[in-house]
TrEMBL record:
SUPFAM superfamilies (UniProt xref): ATPase domain of HSP90 chaperone/DNA topoisomerase II/histidine kinase (SSF55874), HAMP domain-like (SSF158472), Homodimeric domain of signal transducing histidine kinase (SSF47384)
Transmembrane segments: 164-186
The entry's keywords: Kinase, Membrane, Phosphoprotein, Transferase, Transmembrane, Transmembrane helix, Two-component regulatory system
Protein name: histidine kinase
Alphabetical list of InterPro entries matching this protein: HAMP_dom, HATPase_C_sf, HATPase_dom, His_kinase_dom, HisK_dim/P_dom, HisK_dim/P_sf, Sig_transdc_His_kin-like_C, TCS_sensor_his_kinase
Residue ranges of every copy of the HAMP domain listed in the record: 188-241
Subcellular location: Membrane
EC number(s) per entry: 2.7.13.3
Keyword check for Transferase: yes
Organism: Herbaspirillum frisingense
Source species, domain of life: Bacteria
Length: 466
């Protein structure tokens, strides 16, 4: 089986042979037509001159109008031309001096064509010592039919054509050689670049993912391939980076509460304490354990989502009901800080999404809104439908989102300036999970700042059932 390189070379060679041979053959054919046409035109011109003279002359003494030797100015028209005049039966009435005792061939088929008034061109390769081209022109003079035949040697024409064949053949061979060599050199250069790119690509592994393939410097298929591979490496590097960060962050986030737990237990055990102190320590430990548990649950959920193990069942759900359920779950937490949650649903909207998934995401958003809102403010949950798109937005009056946080807000373990400023607890996984969940349903989650006042707006969008 031929490799790609050999196949390319073979195709190139076949194409070159076919093109060059066709071009050479066509050139030779055109030249032969032109040279033969010129001879025919010269023979016909002389035959017509002789016919004209015959018509003007005496038909009882038919003769060839050759000037006597030494009686006329120099002329090349009759040079090497054999002329003969025959009657309608083919009997020779006159012939040029250079024909001697010979006569030009006459065939019954030719006589028949002449009788029809046709001019006849014939080639006789072996008529005399040289191949002949003969034109026979019928003339009617005073009711009698004659034929003027003019013959010329094909020797010169054949020699020109032979030389042309040699020339074209030589040119074709030279072209074939040149193009084949050029093609081979070009293919070799091309494949050398491909080989180089392949070798570079082979060297890139997970430990040197930041390396890029050297661009060949050309804006062609190979250049595009290198660009595409480089952008794929870019994405892979980013994915690896995220993965590495994720593991590092996850370890750190789990380690911190564990070491806090350890310190608290160690402190409690250092000396005997009263029951109230133990209860307080146990409560504080329970808080840490609950935080740890919820974070591990979130990490497990993310892992399952990443592995595609979470069932994605699309249902048709009434969104006002969904919002009401989520608000109810968080009403107590909101109440503790005097925050009111307003539901804004002008009309019932049915959405196509999984109930549990949408509920998890919306709960996360309302939970964030409660965390980041000032006490005694109002959070608005609005459900809308527009052009087949259902949206649920959560608007708060918190600090809003800093411009620097916007690009990373949905990254795992990312905690923005709002959480740092207010020392608000959290692991930075809620929005990452929300986005992964929404993406798995082909839905969107977007973050923005309010335009009418301070605060953030998070919007979920997915298709609505009409
Ligand atoms: N409603 C909001 N207002 C302002 N900032 C927000 C809001 N919701 C989320 N953020 C920012 O996005 C970050 C990530 O949110 P999230 O993934 O839910 O993690 P966490 O709530 O654990 O901090 C938060 O730390 C905060 O900086
Ligand atoms: Mg959160």
């Amino acid at each position: 089986m031929l490799g790609f390189r050999q196949r390319m070379l073979l195709v190139h060679l076949v194409a070159v042979v076919v093109i060059v041979s066709c071009a050479a053959a066509a050139g030779w054919w055109l030249l032969s037509q032109s040279v033969r046409g010129q001879l025919d035109a010269a023979l016909l011109a002389l035959a017509e001159t002789e016919s004209g003279l015959l018509a003007e002359g005496d038909i009882d003494a038919v003769r060839i109008h050759e000037p006597k030797a030494g009686s006329a100015p120099p002329s090349l028209v009759r040079l090497d031309r054999l002329i003969q005049i025959i009657d309608e039966q083919g009997a020779v009435l006159a012939r040029s001096n250079n024909l001697g005792v010979a006569q030009l061939p006459v065939s019954p088929a030719m006589l028949a064509q002449l009788a029809n008034g046709q001019t006849v061109f014939q080639t006789f390769p072996h008529a005399s010592e040289e191949p002949l081209r003969i034109v026979s022109v019928p003339v009617v003079v005073q009711g009698k039919r004659f034929t003027v035949q003019v013959a010329g040697s094909l020797d010169d024409v054949n020699r020109i054509l032979q030389s042309a064949a040699l020339l074209f053949g030589g040119l074709a061979v030279a072209l074939l050689l040149g193009l084949s060599l050029a093609g081979t050199a070009l293919t070799r250069t091309l494949f050398r670049t491909v080989d180089r790119v392949t070798a570079q690509a082979r060297r890139i592994g997970d430990d040197n993912l930041s390396e890029r393939l050297a661009h060949p410097g050309s804006d062609d298929e190979l250049g595009h391939l290198v660009d595409t591979l480089n952008s794929m490496l870019e994405r892979l590097e980013r994915a690896f980076e995220l993965q590495r960060n994720f593991t590092a962050n996850a370890s750190h986030e789990i380690r911190s509460p564990l070491s806090r737990l350890r310190t608290e237990i160690e402190l409690a055990l250092r000396r005997p304490r009263d029951a109230a102190a133990y209860v307080a320590t146990l409560h504080s430990c329970l808080d840490e354990v609950e935080r740890l548990t919820s974070m591990v649950d979130e990490l497990l959920l993310l892992a399952r989502l990443d592995a595609g193990q979470e069932a994605i069942a699309v249902e048709i759900i009434p969104l006002d009901q969904l919002a009401r359920d989520c608000i109810a779950k968080l009403q107590a937490a909101a109440g503790e800080r005097g925050i009111a949650i307003e539901l804004d649903t002008p009309a019932p909207v049915l959405g196509r999404i999984g109930y549990c998934a949408a509920s998890l995401v919306l709960t996360n958003l309302i939970d964030n809104a409660i965390k980041f809102s000032p006490a005694s403010s109002t959070i608005r949950v609005a459900v809308r439908e527009y052009a087949g798109l259902a949206t649920i937005s959560v608007t708060d009056s918190g600090p809003g989102i800093a411009a620097a946080d916007l690009p990373n807000l949905f990254d795992r373990f990312y905690r923005g300036s709002a959480s740092q400023a207010g020392e608000i607890s959290g692991a930075g996984l809620g929005l990452a999970i929300s986005r992964t969940v929404m993406n798995s349903y082909g839905a969107r989650i977007d973050a923005a700042n309010r335009t009418d006042a301070q605060g953030a707006v998070f919007t979920l969008s997915f298709s609505a059932k009409d």
